[in-house]
């Protein structure tokens, strides 16, 4: 059963017209000389009638009205994203509705008559995310994923908590210095939300097989490792072959970045390597052929605001992948943040290579369009 309910839109009237808005950036003016639209909106706000019952209530005052007129108006409002189903099945417990109250309020912007906010939250609760790395970026992502309500986390790291971490890693305490990071961040998760199923793996990633071992049942991987240099290609190989999307975040001097791979749909990391190799023939030849006099050392310049902002952006992209409320923005595309200036953002996409041998291993698309992930099946 569907009982259309109007969302909390703003509406003002001058007697002949209505001015409506939900998002402050968009306003719509509708002519309403008879007051019929105004009455429809008032009754829709109540959210207690089916479309047939709405027609019956309005037809008493406007006998010339037809059911098709009401259906057309409902379709118009639903296309705007202004309606939700007040009779949608209740999927969450009272505890979950209160815990995720602000999540559900946020999802209001993405609901329709066919998709309700509790369904979106359930996708997160049923989701399984693997996070590689529990440092500044990784721990920030973990905090955000738990707040979103992701129900299962597999965490991997090999490092221990030390004094240098505290400028940007806020899940740890001084009493934990010298202890394995991944076990301590798992303790934080359990203390923050005892309903999350969390697995801590204290190990390095030394090749694709170390990543593959974590992928059964996973819906998404977040990679916050930048060492060794080959790690991105290892994660790419494992995830593309298993059909599991992954997001990679990091910091390059004063430029924050994140990008992702959606196997079978977007370009993958190997496509990027092939693309760079092609560019290098003309652009980067000196870097390959000239004598190397100085080599820059890798230094972690991440501060708290950088780790938190970048971690939040990566978690927001994880939300897109897990729920499908909107398309991911980083698939085959660098999302770049200028931390040396005003934190402005830019993008840099790379093409899918038709000859990429890694992409060729991705599972077949469903209906020639979508990769079948566990949440989309």
Q: What key attributes describe this structure?
A:
single chain; 377 residues; alpha/beta; Outer Surface Protein A, domain 3; Rossmann fold; 8-stranded mixed sheet; 3-stranded antiparallel sheet; 15 strands; 18% strand; elongated; disordered C terminus
Oligomer category: single chain
Gyration radius over CA: 25 Å
Number of domains: 2
Structural class: alpha/beta
Span of the ends, CA to CA: 24 Å
Helical amount? 25-40%
For the record, what CATH class of the largest domain applies? Alpha Beta
Care to give the gist of this entry?
By secondary structure, the chain is an alpha/beta fold. The protein is 36% helix and 18% strand.
Word description of this protein:
The protein is of the alpha/beta class. The chain folds into two domains: 4-85, Outer Surface Protein A, domain 3; 126-371, NAD(P)-binding Rossmann-like Domain (Rossmann fold), CATH 3.40.50.720. 36% of the residues lie in helices and 18% in strands. It has helices at 36-46, 51-59, 67-79, 94-99, 101-107, 117-125, 136-148, 181-192, 208-212, 231-242, 269-280, 285-289, 304-323, and strands at residues 4-6, 10-13, 17-21, 28-31, 83-85, 128-132, 152-157, 197-202, 220-223, 246-252, 255-261, 333-338, 345-349, 365-366, 370-371. Strand 12 (333-338) and strand 13 (345-349) form a beta hairpin. Helix 5 (101-107) packs across helix 6 (117-125) and helix 7 crosses helix 13. The longest helix has 20 residues, at 304-323. The two termini are 24 Å apart. Residues 366-377 have low confidence and may be disordered.
């Amino acid at each position: 059963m569907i009982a259309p309910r109007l969302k909390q839109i703003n509406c003002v009237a001058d007697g002949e017209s209505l001015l409506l808005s939900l998002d402050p950036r968009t306003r719509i003016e509708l002519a309403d000389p008879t007051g019929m639209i105004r009455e429809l909106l008032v009754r829709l706000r109540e959210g207690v009638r089916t479309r047939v019952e709405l027609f019956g209530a309005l037809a008493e005052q406007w006998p010339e009205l037809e059911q098709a007129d009401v259906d057309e108006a409902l379709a118009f409002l639903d296309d705007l994203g202004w309606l939700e189903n007040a009779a949608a099945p209740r999927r969450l417990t009272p505890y979950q509705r209160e815990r995720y109250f602000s999540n559900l309020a946020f999802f209001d912007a993405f609901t329709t008559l066919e998709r309700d906010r509790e369904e979106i939250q359930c996708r997160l609760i049923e989701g399984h995310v693997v996070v590689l790395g529990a440092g500044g970026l990784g721990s920030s992502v973990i905090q955000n994923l738990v707040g979103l309500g992701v129900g299962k986390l597999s965490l991997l790291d090999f490092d221990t908590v030390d004094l240098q971490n505290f400028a940007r890693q806020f899940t740890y305490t001084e009493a934990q210095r010298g202890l394995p990071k991944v076990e301590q961040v798992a303790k934080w998760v359990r203390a923050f939300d005892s309903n999350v199923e969390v697995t801590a793996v204290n190990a390095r990633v030394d090749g694709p097989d170390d990543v593959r071992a974590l992928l059964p049942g996973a819906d998404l991987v977040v990679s916050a490792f930048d060492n060794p240099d080959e790690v991105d290609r290892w994660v790419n190989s494992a995830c593309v072959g298993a059909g599991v999307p992954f997001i990679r975040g990091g910091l390059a001097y004063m430029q924050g970045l994140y990008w992702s791979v959606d196997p079978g749909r977007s370009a993958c990391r190997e496509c990027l390597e092939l693309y760079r190799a092609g560019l290098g023939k003309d652009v980067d030849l000196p870097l390959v052929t000239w004598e190397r006099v100085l080599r820059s050392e890798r230094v972690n310049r991440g501060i708290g605001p950088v780790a938190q902002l970048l971690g939040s952006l990566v978690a927001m992209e994880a939300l897109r992948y897990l729920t499908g409320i909107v398309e991911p923005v980083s698939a085959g595309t660098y999302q770049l943040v200028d931390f040396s200036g005003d934190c402005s953002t830019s993008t840099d996409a790379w093409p899918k290579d038709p000859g990429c041998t890694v992409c060729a291993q991705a599972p077949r698309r469903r209906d020639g369009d979508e990769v079948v992930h566990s949440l989309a099946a």
